[in-house]
Amino acid sequence: MTRRKDKLPVAGLMFVRAGACDDLQPAFDFLPGLLHDSTVAIIYGPPGSGKTFFALHLQCSTAIGRTVFGLTPEKRNCLYVGLEGEAGIKARVMAWCAQYGVDSNPIDYALGQFSIGTEGEKDVAALIDYMKRRQIEFLVIDTLSLAMAGLDEISGQHMSLVIDALHRIKRETGACVVAIAHTGKNEKAGIRGHSSQLGNVDTTIEIVCHNKEMVADGNKSRVIEADVTLATPRSAVIRKQRDGEGGKRFHFTLALQDTPFQDARGNVLRRPAVAEHEAFPDLPEEEAGAPARKLSSRERDAADILDALNRKLGRAGPASLDQFRRALKRADWGPENPGSWRRAFHDLKAKLEMGDHDDVLHLH
């Protein structure tokens, strides 16, 4: 199956008269259950977690149709925009080739300066033009923070401009657009910057390093955090999937490989590449990834209401908890009895992912 080619307008609305239906097709998952055509995704994690290597692994595998984490992708032309560590990108790609026995670089990549948002109109237009000429269908921008240089990550207005630009690239090319982002100081809070990143994209994937161990200390317990190394077990966890079920995990470590290049002293450059694993048996069940709990019918209805509300709010979103509560009331969600409704909403709140400003990102 080829990627979908919708006739959705690049700007403005598509109007559909009563009695008729549009002919838009569901997004096709060229990486089954993981990434879809014509969507925007974010891969995020702390520094050193392997975000770039994971993204390159997905791109290089997809470019040649190689099975990745047990998934058989449909081939896509790929472009990696590397805005950090530019001089080492070719070595990273060729390390992947050495890891998987591939003779030559299978993806396009771009180096230099690239700006997105208010000051980046020319850069975005040039990127879209290149993608159309090369028929690029899978784009990675590494990293989002460098692409929005001069803008404020914490500002909802600035972040909305950036996310709008990613959606523009998606609309005009039909590609899967992936941005790589860092977590903040509090990793549990998710992506660094304004939380609208999570509410206004289709897919989010967190890279988790399993380098923490709970140990007994008398009557208490404490967490020991080990240094992150190449051998540290890692998982890529789908935290949000608009057109599918989240919670899936893909396990990997990193392995050093020789490349055809030399450093400034004439030594062979060695760079990491992803080494896939089916599972990490020594990890506790909750870390290794117990099967995700499925949402009930009522919870799925609430998730649909939240998604519709965040789409309606656009740049003003994500919705506050109070806005979400009012939207549920307007949609006649939940039990009719007021006491039962409050209990149902209380249970629902436990499954909400909240942002830094008491806004509601998604339901999981």
CATH class of the largest domain: Alpha Beta
* Relative helix content: 25-40%
- For the termini, the CA-CA separation is 30 Å
- Strand percent estimate: 15-25%
What about the largest sheet? 9 strands, mixed
What would your notes on this structure say?
The chain is 30% helix and 23% strand. The model has no long low-confidence stretch (mean pLDDT 83). With 364 residues, the chain is of the alpha/beta class. The protein is globular, with a radius of gyration of 21 Å. The chain has helices at 51-64, 89-100, 121-134, 144-147, 156-173, 196-199, 285-288, 297-313, 321-330, 338-349; strands at residues 40-45, 78-82, 108-110, 138-142, 176-182, 203-209, 212-217, 220-225, 234-241, 249-262, 268-277, 352-354, 360-363. The protein has ten helices and 13 strands. α1 crosses α2. It folds into two domains: 40-288, Rossmann fold (3-Layer(aba) Sandwich); 297-363. It has a nine-stranded mixed sheet. The protein has a two-stranded antiparallel sheet with strand order 7-8. A two-stranded antiparallel sheet has the order 12-13. β9 (234-241) and β10 form a beta hairpin.
